[in-house]
Amino acid sequence: MRTTAPGVLLVLIMAQPNLATGMMPYYRHTWELAPLLITVIFAAYLFALTPTLTFIGTPPARQAWWWRIGVGSVCGIGADIAMGLADSAGPACAARVLAGLSVGLVTGSLAGLILERNGEGGRTAMATATVLGSALGTIAAAWVAQYLPAPGVTVYAGHAVLLGGVALIVCTDRSPGHRTDAARTTRPKSNEPPIAGYLNGIAAWVSAGLVVALLPSYGAELLGTTELPLLALPVGLYLVSAWVVQRAVPPDTLPGEPILAQLTIIAGVAIAATVAIAPSLPLLLAGAVLAGCGQGIAYRTGLRIVSAATPPDQHARIAARYAAVAYLCAAVATIGFGVVATVATMRDAVIAAAVALLGVAAATTIVRTYTHTPQPETPTVTTA
Fold first, then answer.
1. Which of 253, 264, 303, 311 has a CA between 20 and 30 Å from the CA of residue 295?
2. What percent of the chain shows pLDDT beyond 70?
3. Distance CA 310, CA 304 (A)
C-alpha cells in the first residue's frame, strides 16, 4: 500500500484538471463558448501551475513534502467544488487556477516520495501516473456526464471523495522508505544536452494542449455528434497510448529517441488534420493514437535526459523545473491555437500546431548536432 498510494494520489491529482476535458463539448454548448475561451479555460490551469511549480512547488528537503501534499490535495478538492458550481467561463477559470495550484504543489513532493519508495523505477512510475491520471479523468468524466444525472456535478463530487481519502492515507504515513536501491543503483547517464530534454517536454505538452483543449470540439464540428464519450475517445486514446508505450517500450531502445518521439507526434497531428478534408472517426482515432505514442516517449525521454545522474534528493527539484517549462510553453501555444481557431478554423489551428511542433523538432535537431556532452573517460591503469 505504501508504495502504491503516492502513485494513486498522483493519478487522482492529475485527473482533476482533465475532468473538464471530457465534458468540454457540453460546456461549449451550454455556456456558448468560442474556441478562444475554451483554450483560455485550459490555459488558466497551466498559468497557475507554472509559477507554483517554480516558486513553491519545489521542496528543499523531505520534511517539506508533507504540507505541500496536504495543501495541494485541499486545493484539488476546492477545484472540484468550484468546477461543480461553475456556470460560465469565469468561475471555470477560477476552478482551473485551484487545479493548477494543486498540481503545482503536489507534483515535486510526490515525485520525491515515489522515487524514495520505488527506487529507480520511480522515474517511469511518475511519468506513467501523470499520463494515466489525465486519461482516466477525461474518459470517466465523459461517461459520467453522459449517463448519470447532474452533468458537471456528479463527477466532481466523486473525485473529491476519492482524492480526500487517498491524500489522508499518504499524509498519515510519513516514515522513510526502506528501499536502498535508489541510492545504490547506478543512475542513467546521458550524452544528450539538457536542453534537448526540455524541448522534448515542450513538444509533449504542446501536443497535449492541442489534443486536450481543442480535439473534442474539433471532432464535434467535423463529425457532427454531441455524444460526449465518443468525442472524448480520441483524447482518451491519445493519453492511454502515451501510457501504454511507456510500459511497452524500454527506455533508450529506439534510435534517435528524442527526435523520433517528436516526429511521431507530428505525424499523428498531421493525420488528425486530414479529417477536415475527409471526415472519419477511425482516421481521427488513428492520429490520436500515433500522437499519443510520440507524447509518451517524448515526455519520458525528456525527463530522463534532464534528470540523468541526479541523486534522489534532487529529483523533485529537477522534475518540477522540467514540468514548469513544458507547461508554460503549452499554455502559451494553446492560447495561440485558440486564437487561430477563432479567427480562422479548427483545421487551421491543427495545422498551426503541426508547424509549431516541426519548429521544436528542428530546434532539437540543431541542439543535438552542435551540443555534445561527453561521457567521462575511464582512467587507464598502466603497469611499469
1. 311
2. 89
3. 10
Helices 194-223 and 24-31 pack at an angle, to 10 degrees, of 60
**CB–CB of 361/259 below 8 Å?**
yes
Where residue 60 falls among pLDDT bands split at 50, 70, 90? Answer: confident
Handedness of CA 362, 238, 198, 183 (dihedral sign): negative
Which of 360, 330, 255, 325 lies closest to 297 in space, CA to CA?
255
List, for residues 250-283, the tens digit of each pLDDT value: 887 888 899 999 999 999 999 999 998 889 999 9
Alpha-helical runs (H) found in the chain: 5-22, 24-31, 35-51, 65-85, 89-118, 122-147, 154-171, 181-184, 194-223, 228-248, 257-273, 281-306, 312-343, 346-370
Q: How far apart are CA 85 and CA 156, in angstroms?
A: 10
The DSSP annotation for 134-172 comes to HHHHHHHHHHHHHHSSSTTTHHHHHHHHHHHHHHHHHHT
Assess contact for 191 and 373: CB atoms under 8 A: yes
Amino acid identity, residue 341?
A: A
**Grid cell digits, residue 260:** 523520433
Q: pLDDT for 212-226, tens place per residue?
A: 888 888 888 888 888
Of 182-191, 197-206, 317-326, the range with the highest mean pLDDT is: 197-206
C-alpha cell at 244: 501504454
**Residue 367 confidence (pLDDT):** 93
Q: How far apart are CA 143 and CA 151, in angstroms?
A: 10
Cβ pair 297, 312 in contact under 8 A: no
Contact criterion met (CB below 8 Å) for 240 and 294: no
CA angle at 213 for the pair 301 and 210, rounded to the nearest 5°: 45
- pTM of this structure: 0.79
State yes or no: pLDDT of 67 exceeds 80.
Answer: yes
CA dist 233 to 9, 139, 142, 287, Å?
24, 7, 9, 12
Which is nearest to 357 in space by CA: 271, 242, 262?
A: 262
Report the share of the chain in percent with pLDDT over 90. 44
- DSSP H helical ranges for 274-311: 281-306
